[in-house]
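This is your field. Have a critical look at both lines of this record:
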Amino acid sequence: MVLLGATLHAQQYAEPKSEPRLKFAPTAGFGYRLGMLSEEIPPDFEAYARNLKTGYSLGIDGTYFVKPQWGLGIKYLRFGSSNSIGNVQVTFGDGNSARGRIADIVTIDFIGAAYSSITPLGNGKHLLIGNLALGYLAYVNESLLVNRSVRITGNTFGAALDFGYDYKISKRIRFGAQLGYALGTLNKVAVLENENLSNITFEDENRENLAFLTLGGGFRLSI
């Protein structure tokens, strides 16, 4: 028993502690849509539409590292923007017109399966991170046209790619920053206007480009 206890005691100090395998990486920051403005937008509304291209980004990665250098998991990413303007004359498709406020709240959500890689640098406290994900991309625009509410929705296949840097504060806590890119295009949308639902299909050259860039950071937790 003494010999067995001594052997186990020696092994306790000889074997290195394993690194945590499960990592959660929330990120918040800046987002920018890459799609070109539609040529059908009236010149007076180009500045309004251009402001909707800039917004915020939120996301979280949950990854299980099969090996210290790579892992599999789930990625969630959101781009959001909003804008409004008052005292605008709007002419509707039915020929009626009204003057008042217009507003848009746009969200683009991505969720998918992800592959992640880690490359340690120097003493191991500096880490380069890469993620590639494939999954589902959803678009929602909550719009107000004076006295009419319009909800435009669509979904498609999407992909997300990002590169980042993490600094290892402790075994379980890191702080990092990353640059990301998500892409996908819509060929049709559903439009709900005053409880009337219609579907619009775009020609190939008029598809809605959902691509956006993200730049953000946050603390990462490993368990």
